Amino acid sequence: MGDYSVIADVSASLIKLLREQMTPDPIPQPELIGLGNPVDKGDFYLSLFLYNVKESGDNRKTQMISRGTGEIQYPPMAVDLHYMMTVQSPADLQSRALDEQRILGRAMQVLYDNSVLRGSTVVGTLAEHGEEVRVVMDSISGDGMLNMWNFADTPYRLTVSYIVGPVMIDSTRIKTTKRVLERDVSIQG
């Protein structure tokens, strides 16, 4: 569980993982991997873009959480984060497509081999609470991806979509309760 910053912590954890495992090959410097809209002008060879956040009904919690004597906290909200991973190589036109495919292949391999983010891979509130999240490639069709790639006059770039979650965002709602001091047990006979 985490506070409101847990979404940013997931993004930072993904970038940290990709930077640690993709440099210096196939990407020469870690700063060339980052968070950004796929059409932002920049130097990223590989970018992650959080394009959607959905409540994860399958992982929704309903149990109140005890916070000591006299207080219970409402359960956390479970969400799934949807990312676009986009590749852009600065290579010349003749080798650009192959270079982008190598970068994408390595990034997919890294996320597949680390399909559960946990331990030293995570940062922030995820690390503080020992949380883990799954990383799964999204099964968006080619047409679906092209429809999502609706960024004005920018031509389509090689992109893969991932779902990361469930991510738990703590509720700030707390309810005070009174301790049970007496119990009456009657037996009906």
TrEMBL record:
Name of the protein described by the UniProt record: DUF4255 domain-containing protein
Pfam family, any one: Pvc16_N
Chain ranges of the Pvc16 N-terminal domain: 9-181
